[in-house]
Fold this sequence. Notes:
By secondary structure, the chain is mainly beta. The protein has one helix at 59-72, and strands at residues 2-3, 21-22, 31-44, 76-89, 92-106. It has a single domain, classed as Hypothetical protein apc22750. Chain B (Translation Initiation Factor IF3, 2-Layer Sandwich). It has a 5-stranded mixed beta sheet with strand order 1-3-5-4-2, with helices on one face. It starts with a strand and ends in a 6-residue tail after the last strand. Residues 6-10 have low confidence and may be disordered.
Amino acid sequence: MSQFNSDALKEESDPRINDVVLSTGNINQKYIVRDIVFVVECLEADLFDPAFPNEDLFLTTKRKLKMKVLEYGANAVINCHFEYQQRNRDGKYFLELFAYGTVIQFIQTTIG
């Protein structure tokens, strides 16, 4: 379990990660399905604390999905779903973040 820290995204990563597409729906491009992926995180944080940067909540979760795409040599995750649960354990608040979707690889089409 880790403390929530949006600065964790500043670590070095594969530059190809910026080309990976995440979509909560389908896309209008030809593709083949590679697999279904799932990631989970548990962070010590209170989602309802006014100081909590909720716009950054799923940043590391999305990065993990994109890293899985690169492991497959694919291009995108479509039909992504993001969920969370907040729990209180021994007076501390924890966020459990879940994300899943379908890994796809774009296929080239030729006309003629």
